[in-house]
């Protein structure tokens, strides 16, 4: 998961969307018992059978190995485009499982291919594997040995989970109908890896019908969250160009006013209050959430003079493309009909990052599968759309329908908080066991496991 703010030009002040999203996650924990009670009071009535012992047994057998692998990757983090050692470790593990392995895709990317006993559905699972630049010291005993680089977004955990799923499914290979592609993607943080793999012929090597991925989050360990459609608000950078002159200061103030007029939030004092993000009545986890169908404008502006031109940049977030297009049309109409239209020279729009767009049908079947096998207090739907964040897994979803999940990785009693991109990032490593169990079962369900 990349922080979209890191792909923005820094303006007058920090854009706080992603940080507020993190606060929301923490506040959701306060409501967690309330969510559990909804299920227990009969609003979600699903009988939970015993978990398939073959999956659980194999997961337990390999759990310590997966933890050791995760810690090894954590000690040796690599930035996007430089994941040579990480890719080699992944390749060694996949080869040891007897999978067909392809390497060097889009740089350091790779694929492990598991073919079942019979033909059937073809499914892909993605794990990203790059780390982040960080000078902050690690908060765990197995600290990074690569100065200035740390795994503070959990990609080391996600690699371990993906390899664990591959291991479990290999142990059940003779009972599987279909093919699973395990895709290990480089350069997610700089938003280049998915495109690089696609451009390098990924979809000539694999032909999945469904594509899945997860990301660790500050949710409590043991739960999974997802939703149909977009998980994050779309972000665009707007750059306005005016001819400079004696009215430049007036033009800047006018442009700010027009941009701020795009916002559709009726009560910003409620919308922007982080204490409301986890509110059971209007928060992101509520069916009555106020965090849907909105256009938000961030307060920072980037203003500069260049070659006799005044350039004004700002950022807007929208919950769907239609709202974004409406905002763009409104902006252009206002500028072209203004007293400064002779100075106005044009607008450019820049995508800040990519946003996973989950297939509604697959979300429904996945949520049902998880709840049937693991209980209604394991899977939760996110009704609202959070601002900030993104993941170029979205580019794979443009090719193949898929689902992007949030996996809880925090233990609040022990003050282990999986707050991605933060100096104190840490995970409850039990999430590796949880992720392997839940998503091995999900893939087996999709493959019509015998």
Descriptive notes:
Helix 2 runs antiparallel to helix 4 and helix 10 (about 360-375) crosses helix 12 (about 430-445). It is globular and about 75 Å long. It has helices at about 15-40, 55-75, 85-95, 155-170, 195-200, 200-205, 250-260, 270, 320-335, 360-375, 395-400, 430-445; strands at about 100-105, 110-115, 120-130, 130-135, 150, 175-185, 210-220, 225, 230, 235-245, 295, 300-305, 310-320, 345-350, 355-360, 380, 400-410. The strands form four sheets. It has an eight-stranded mixed β-sheet with strand order 1-2-6-3-7-17-8-16, with helices on both faces. The protein has two domains: about 45-230 and about 355-445, Zn peptidases (Aminopeptidase), CATH 3.40.630.10; about 235-350, 2-Layer Sandwich (Alpha-Beta Plaits). By secondary structure, it is an alpha+beta fold. Helices cover about 35% and strands about 25% of the residues. Residues about 5-25 and about 30-50 have low confidence and may be disordered.
Give a brief rundown of this model.
Helix content is 36%, strand content 23%.
Name some characteristics of this structure.
single chain; 450 residues; alpha+beta; Aminopeptidase; Alpha-Beta Plaits; 2 domains; eight-stranded mixed beta sheet; five-stranded antiparallel beta sheet; 12 helices; 36% helix; 23% strand; globular
